[in-house]
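Late entry, magnesium ion complex.
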Amino acid sequence: MFIHGSAGVGKTHLAVAYLVREIQSKGEASRVFIRSVDLMNRLRDSFRSSYNQAASEIIGDYSRYRFLVIDDLGAERHTDLVQEAMYDILDFRSGHRLPTVITSNFSLDRVAEHYGDFGERIVSRIAGMGETMRLLGKDRRWQK
Ligand SMILES: Nc1ncnc2c1ncn2[C@@H]1O[C@H](COP(=O)(O)OP(=O)(O)OP(=O)(O)O)[C@@H](O)[C@H]1O
Ligand SMILES: [Mg+2]
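Prediction complete; structure with ligand written out below:
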């Protein structure tokens, strides 16, 4: 599922609700929430130090989790590494029909632009995996 909309409308809240429901019915193992910024920072770090987990292992883990929330897709800086890693993860997950909830401030068109050469293929996989939902409303953080 792809949930998009402007700041504070409740995208992360809704994605976490899906994750909690999943954990309550099937258990915690292999059911994971990550912000895309943190995922990409972990990947970058993996290139900097040999003590860190290898990038391929990180990509392998996030490709295979039984249920994954990727929060704030598109908020990370886009480099070739980031674009390719996101493609790898989503290609595997869509191919294996692994449930994935993605939130973003971007619509799918803008996600496609953000991911450069991989954009069209990333968006094709996201859209093909399930529903696209646009959340409307006010910023719940401060608007009444
Ligand atoms: N259905 C809801 N009921 C009550 N509170 C909610 C609901 N949805 C969101 N909120 C609250 O509103 C605030 C903003 O929600 P959230 O963080 O999910 O927004 P977001 O769309 O992810 O924003 P951003 O684009 O900035 O990440 C949070 O404090 C959240 O707990
Ligand atoms: Mg959010």
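The chain has a mean pLDDT of 94. Will revisit in the morning.
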